[in-house]
Amino acid sequence: MADGFEPxxxxxxxxxxxxxASEAAGQERLDHITHxxxxxxxxxxxxxxxxxxxxxxxxxxxxxxxxxxxxETRMRIGEGLVGRVARTGTIVNTADAPSAKGFRYMPETGxxxxxxxLGIPIQRLGDKLGVLVVQSKQAREFSADxxxxxxxxxxxxxxxxxxxxxxxxxxxxAARHQQQxxxxxxxxxxxxxxxxxxLHEPRxxxxxxxxxxxxxxxxxxxxxxxxxxxxxxxxxxxxATGGDTEHLQxxxxxxxxxNSKGWMRRMxxxxxxxxxxxxxxxxEQSAARARMSQVTDPYLRERLHxxxxxxxxxxxxxxxxxxxxxxxxxxxxxxxxxxxxxxELLDYGNKxxxxxxxxxxxxxxxxxxxxxxxxxxVIHASQITTEALNGDHILxxxxxxxxxxxxxxxxxxxxxxxxxxxxxxxxxYASIRDLPATxxxxxxxxxxxxxxxxxxxxxxxxxxxxxxxxxRTELQFLVQSKMPQRAELSAQYQRVLNAAQGRRVVFRTLxxxxxxxxxxxxxxxEPNPALGWRAIRVGLxxxxxxxMQLQALIRAANGGPLTVMFPFIAQxxxxxxxxxxxxxxxxxxxRLGHPLPSKLxxxxxxxxxxxxxxxxxxxxxxxxxxxxGNDLKQFFFAADRENELVRRRYDTLNVSFxxxxxxxxxxxxxxxxxxxxxxxxxxxxxxxxxxxxxxxRSLSMRPASIGPVKSLIRRTDLSxxxxxxxxxxxxxxxxxxxxxxxxxxxxx
Length: 748
Ligand code: PEP
Ligand code: MG
Hints:
By secondary structure, this protein is α/β, with parallel strands linked by helices. It has four domains: 5-173, 2-Layer Sandwich (Beta-Lactamase); 181-202 and 325-421, 3-Layer(bba) Sandwich (Glucose Oxidase, domain 1); 214-319, Enzyme I, Chain A, domain 2; 436-747, TIM Barrel (Alpha-Beta Barrel), CATH 3.20.20.60. Helices cover 46% and strands 16% of the residues. It contains 27 helices and 23 strands. Strands 15, 16, 17, 18, 19, 20, 21, 22 and 23 form a nine-stranded mixed β-sheet that branches. The protein is elongated and about 90 Å long. The termini are far apart. The structure holds phosphoenolpyruvate and magnesium ion.
């Protein structure tokens, strides 16, 4: 960078810095800014429009347009040239504004006499904050240098908006991080939480966007980039020894960006125009985020994400704001993250009141862990990582999938009423904890809980569950970074059995594949993973892990009773082969002199429709069957359980599905096979009631559902519900839900 490079824009930034440091109130400061920009650019007009709400821009300050229009002129995003800049996030530079596409005449501003128009979006890290406009009578296009200079100014304005430098007048001027925000999300784990924000990756705050000495800033940038390159190289070296190719690819992309000349050059130029090193990094990051919102190609999006992560690292190096900011975790933390891995989540233990993720998916491992820990979790919370600041008050309504950030008193009041009602219901459930789930007409349903981690087990005693109806052993595998050893597994299973204090625990052998991918196992690309090489199919084709698991289970039982269940059995031969593995493991253990289980039950999950029609021999061979409704339903309706577009399309109470389940109940009754249901539907009170009504005598669900399910069963006549379902079917209704709900209303 040559000395004296773009002195005009640096001078302008110097004047902006003085304004920022002045004692002036928000509006005065803003007015002053429009004045100095117009003066320095030699234009008659300079205006600043800021978002009043998501869709509306408001003229907040102007030099040159009529003063009366300030805080009066508003436009919707996309409306007029200003609205176009805001909507697209791109610059409009025209010599003849009145004939430009989208021009809208606003008489109150008196702007028709201005011919040239340059509009620059004011945005920060993907957040649209407003539009900066200069206009002049002379019909000319603004030069590339002028455009660039004004972009730097817009960046500084974005920082000032962020820092609340314009607070004081009108809602449009409220500091961004003081406003109340409501975000609609997807629920991954129900429940409500009231607490304060704890950012998994704290935001880097740039307090000094403008710098006096570009040489010093350039030096700082170079040193920081060097440090960054070294750390990326180190990460690459250690990843190369680990052999994780996907991770390596990400790091290769990091290295490519870290060494990118274009990236460096643009930041150097911005510094030359007067930005501080961190503001220059952030400007590039904002541009990358803006591109990210437009790119649909998943590969490119990923690369832009990489660049974003890299910029964050660079910002942390420059500002010294590491992950450890010295901030103290609130006593009621609600974790905010873009995404989080299961192991990182487990590190927080049960300190967290709730979790809000900007990305994530319902079937993600983090969601599984959150479910195990019974922490409310919502995902797809748009912009939450940029909106939330450490310590902000936040409410999660996991039932409706809503997040209230910095809620006002009315929202807090309504929310706390809801929490109080739920607490009352909890008291009611606690009072029936030791009573059986016996219906009004005397039918008893045994209720068990689903678990998968040691963290789940404390719920066993408190929830009133009779035992663990489904222990998903794969969760332990998923949250580790390497394949567990047999001794480790055996110790874990022993802890589970100890915690169960003699209650029955149904250990399901490893159910991986489909959405559950072990980080340390080679992934294979499959066209339809849900229909692919998963669960028992993997277990039988590569029996090493299954054998280790069976051995670990037998050792953990240590001469006590043991119950094993195989997932995803689709035909008799699979069960026979899996059962043979158990027999072999028993024989091996006997030879080694280990005590054998006092009682051994070996069952299967019924998750594919094929199994419902298996031969009588199959039903007689298994000790018990458990319907995995999550998978069974997705195959019955051919609707992917992970696909948001179809996930909720088919009702569990659809009469076809209920008839199908009734058929399974009948076959089990004929063959005297113990039967239970352990999919998510078993934990939904209305669904659970209907399952009980059609003959399921054992249900396994998440612990928090046991109270509500038991309470409803105890209040209801199951034979009557069964008749309601049958009548609905005879009337030709597609789903029994409406009829059952009507019936329950008459009973309450
Ligand atoms: C099911 O499919 O219903 C089930 C309980 O197993 P998972 O959800 O672990 O696939
Ligand atoms: Mg399943």
